[in-house]
Amino acid sequence: MSITAAVLATLLKDPLTKALGWTFKEALKGTRNQNIEKSLQTLSETILEVIKVKTIYKGDDSINLHEFYVATKIDKIQGAVDSILNISDKSIVLEGTVGQGKSIFMRYLTYQEATKGQRVPIFFELRRLEDSQSLKAAISDKIKNWIPLFNDDDFEKFASSGSLVLFLDGFDEVPYEKVGRLINEIEGWCERYEDLQIIISSRPEADIQKSNFFRVFKLSSYDFNEQSKLIDKLVDEEESRNLLKKAIEGSTTEIQNLLTTPLMVTLFIMNYRSNLEIPTNQNEFYKELFSVLISRHDKTKPGYKRPLNSGISETDLQKVFEQFCFVTNNSDKLVLTYTEAIDFIESCLDKQSIDANSIDVLEDFSKVICLLLKDGLEYSFIHKSIQEYFYASFILRKSEKAKEKFYKRCIESGTIHIRVTNTLDFLKRNDTYNYNKYYKKIILNDYIRCYLIVEDYNTIIDNIYCSITRKDNNVIQVSFMLNDLGSFLSTISCCPSSIDNLFVSISEKLNPGRNIGFHYGLGDINQPSYIGFENLNKILDEASLELLRKETIGIGNSFLLEHKEIEIHINQLDEIDLDL
């Protein structure tokens, strides 16, 4: 159970007064104590609001996260974590996959930090950064909610006081074009404010993980122990709890591998309680999801399928929602105003020639299926992966020609590829033929051709260049450039994970034992923008080069093997025996 705002205000009085005493003294004059009390009350209420969340299980009702929170574990950290200081007293990135509970964990840690009464925690969702807004301005605006006279100059003192800890949630939800500017601002803070601890949550492979100012800690996957605890939290009836636990234990390996996050376990519970059947694979798991969310009742009990406000069929509503996910994702929209949501829905209805009122459809999205939740004057997806999955469903309904066009755009545009990375993962499983033929095979062909890959030979290592910038404490920032010979490769965003891992290996050899920040790109080494980049053979010793060369030989061979397997798969599906 959470404590009251009054108790929280008492706990936060010392750190707030220490951090902002000059503000009250200088700006508030004789009303100092009165204003401190008012600010404490508002701050405490703000923190208690942080732990009120809307979930896919409860729908449109906000609930205290303690009602369902299961202690999060961190890889290589013993036991459950109930304070950020259990992990580190430095700035860190908390990395987790889709639906792993990063945001809930960040909210929980924010509350826990407040109850310690030593620092003032501020929780901020990075997706709410406005187009031209700096992070400093956004954080200052939050502080102004409880200290109206707070200004930008006060931020410098607050950040330097040692009494502030920032929880910045969802770095992976920041639009691609804003990422560079945001990282520069955050790294600037790390350099200027030594006593400011910054906690950032993100999915894997975001650019912030490459910063040498942050150490990365990974959230642990759910095992049966956590799965059981979450079931106990969400399901009231003991018989149902036991059935669900047995269902998980008796499920296929594919389903058990899927149930490694709180979101997936929650969806499994809803799916099973509705259908009383255990899905045998991921396709079955997701296929029934939309219908399950509309029904929202146990087949073991009397119930009814909630009528849709829009009056259209469940099938048509799903088609509209799929296209809605497609167009909002393409517009980099996870949070929408009412007007934006209505405009997108009207466009989708028009393109699909479905006669319905857009306001009623929005009500269905937010109050019936509850995949789009109303938060004040805005609407947001219950989880980014929902938008990504139904985006993939929209692509799945398209013709082969349309899919070919989609995959081609993903290869050609780095911006598009980054935005649909997880959608591509869904399509890899559910549109395997077209994914392999028009996406994966094309990328492998490019690499094989560009770097002369044959068995036990390639020129990958000979075409990696880097530039090294040394910073304080002998920390280095490395910029890699993969030379694109003759512009065979369209975008570095499609870079196979094995190439990404290769850059990590090189970084470790350049400065062993130290935390290195690095990034990489694709280009022509002869261009002026790459002056100062040198080939690895001028930087590394022969022994290191030889080890890396062996690694790249293995990478090249794996490309050839994967390419061969894809060719076989495509040819098998293209063949037809007319005598059958």
Identify the overall geometry: globular
Give the biggest sheet: 5 strands, parallel
The helicity comes to: 40-55%
Mean pLDDT: 84
- End-to-end Cα distance: 67 Å
Strand order of the largest sheet: 4-5-6-3-7
Ranges where pLDDT stays below 50 over 5 or more residues in a row are 24-32, 297-304
How many helices? The count is 22
**Percent of residues in β-strands:** 5-15%
Structural class of the secondary elements?
alpha/beta
Radius of gyration: 26 Å
Overall strand count:
14
Explain how this protein is built.
The chain is built from 22 helices and 14 strands. It has helices at 5-27, 32-50, 102-116, 135-144, 152-160, 176-192, 224-234, 238-249, 253-258, 262-275, 282-287, 289-295, 314-330, 338-351, 358-368, 384-396, 400-412, 414-419, 421-430, 432-450, 497-510, 542-574, and strands spanning 52-54, 62-64, 92-95, 120-125, 164-169, 197-202, 215-218, 335-337, 372-375, 378-381, 464-470, 476-483, 517-523, 534-535. The strands form four sheets. Strands 4-5-6-3-7 form a five-stranded parallel sheet, with helices on both faces. β5 (164-169), α6 and β6 form a beta-alpha-beta unit. The radius of gyration is 26 Å and the shape is globular.
